Amino acid sequence: MKKLYIIAIIFLFILPSVLHSSLIEMGNEFIKIIADTDTARFIIKTTGGDPKLDSDQDSLLLYEDYPPTSFTTLQVDGREYKFGSDENGMFTSRLVKRDDVLSTVWNFKNIDVKQTLKIVKGPTTGNLDTIEIQYDVINKDRKDHEVGIRVMLDTYLGKEDGAPFRIPDRGNITEEKMLSKDEVPEYWYSYDDLEKPSVIAQGTLRLPGSPVPSMLIFASWERFNKYLWDFSIKSGRSFRRSVIGPLDSALAMYWPIGKLKPNENYTIKTYYGLMAKEAIPTSKVIQITLGGPSVTTGEAVKVTANIKNTSKYEIKNVKAEMILPPDGLKLNFNENSFKNLATLKKEESKDTGWSIIPSKTKTGSMTIRVKVTGTIKDKEVIEIAEKVIEYKEVTYTLYDFSYINRLINRVNQNKENNNNKLNDVNRAISEKLDAVYSQENRNTDREAIDERIKDSQKIKEEIPKAVNSAIKNEKK
To answer: Is domain 281-391 classified as CATH 1.10.287.110?
Structure first.
């Protein structure tokens, strides 16, 4: 009996390490991702967090459990399946870390779904504190399939499982909400506390080279776990798991791909990570929350500002002004530096924004300022918020592909000549012009066609060598 007791004690101490033995971590001084090799699900935590913020070190951004509670749904021909589930499919490539990338491939019904996770620069911080979540869906079957993918994140900010959300130009989201098509924003934010946030995260939905989600839903994790795809919003419903249960917020992004043909590939991606410290409001009278990208390579940048009255009184004549540095940045065409917000009632917030473009007179980091003024009982109040935007000049590499173009033109000319000759042959046969189109002419034409085909094959073999030669002789 004593031996059994000792064995039981040993088992209790060993069990946690066994349960967590199949985890892979990848991180840096800002953030890390912990992935479960059995399911390929993951959690995200800060390490050092934002260097400008003292309250977000070693903080969760997604709920921590094993297996993790954030998961992705694959819809195939009207049925839904959880990505990574052994009941529905199998991993053809297990989760592996290579070159600072975590990747895995899961297959179901001859549909390959490749999940790729890596750390990238945050849109508002410029630091490597954001996780890029990417899925490549490939139809390996011989027939078409109707396919869709849903990425659900079980948010957890610091110690807050019911973390609220915010969308630029729309304000706080503390109950179920659905946005579709053009309503889907560029960014969404999540806080541990709307009034005094110590941890703040940002998700990015509109990324170059990736389709925008057709739908974005905010709801409780329990509801997403129950309804893997079809979801009906209940107006006024909070993020509670049940009527009296605890708050448990989550969000889901939908990409209904549609018909995927054999060997066709569809790629989606989204970002989730930290938001810059300057976006965290600290004002006691007027609270200013700035958002938008922190880096531009020449394109316009949309800077958003959420302005909230946190005083006990109504604020009248509220105006927001964008103040730009003397050179380097300028307002976009037809943009006005002043925004008139009229009156802010107690606890009321309003959103505004400006479109800014580089003036190309200066590169590097530049500080913009948003100044908000108003009057409380005929007394002027002023608050200012700052944000750093970095303008990076892109260096283009030029290649001389003129020789390659000539090779391609030769292939196209051979193809055109052969098609014209075949058309003549077919016409002669259909019109029975044997007297005109003799056997001798047929042999001659056949030899010419074969010669052009051989020439095209030689050219195709020469093109890769020509490309490598052009790259070696690049011009910058």
So the answer is: no
Phi, psi at residue 402, to the nearest 5°? Answer: -65, -40
Tokens of 201: 């995260």
Would you list the DSSP string of 394-405? PPPPB---HHHH
What tokens does 221 get?
Answer: 């994790």
Q: What is the secondary structure of 69-114 as a DSSP string? A: S-EEEEEETTEEEETT-TTT-EEEEEEEEETTEEEEEEEETTEEEE
39, 65 contact by CB (below 8 A): no
* Cα–Cα distance measured from residue 324 to residue 330, given in angstroms and rounded to the nearest whole number: 7
Is 123 in contact with 187 (CB distance < 8 Å)? yes
Contact 371, 323 (CB under 8 A): yes
Q: Give the residue carrying structure tokens 């499919």.
A: 89
Backbone angles phi, psi at 117, to 5 degrees: -125, 130
Q: For 21-274, which CATH class?
A: mainly beta
d(CA 3, CA 75): 51
d(CA 337, CA 370): 10
**Cβ distance 148 to 229 under 8 Å?**
yes
Whether the link from the prior residue into 326 is cis, omega within 30° of 0, is: no
The domain ranges of the chain are 21-274, 281-391, 402-472
Contact 14, 106 (CB under 8 A): no
Contact 308, 337 (CB under 8 A): no
Tokens of 470: 């052009």
Stretch (H or E) spanning 426: helix 402-430
Per-residue pLDDT of the chain (476 residues; tens, 9 = 90+): 433 433 444 444 444 433 444 899 999 999 999 999 999 999 999 999 999 888 999 999 999 999 999 999 999 999 999 999 877 789 999 999 998 999 999 998 899 999 999 999 998 888 999 999 999 999 999 999 999 999 999 999 988 888 899 887 677 899 999 999 989 999 999 988 877 788 999 999 999 889 999 999 999 999 999 999 999 998 889 998 876 778 999 999 999 999 999 999 999 999 999 998 776 666 678 989 888 888 888 889 999 999 999 888 999 999 999 999 988 899 998 899 999 999 999 989 999 999 999 987 888 888 899 999 999 988 889 898 888 888 887 765 666 777 788 888 888 888 888 888 787 777 777 776 665 667 777 788 888 888 888 888 888 888 887 777 777 665 43
pTM of the predicted structure, to 2 decimals:
0.68
Q: Which of 105, 96, 110 shows the shortest CA–CA distance to 143?
A: 110
Q: Write a three-state SS string for 34-46.
A: EEECCCCCEEEEE
Helix (H, G, I), strand (E, B) or coil at 124: coil
Counting every residue written for the chain, the total comes to 476
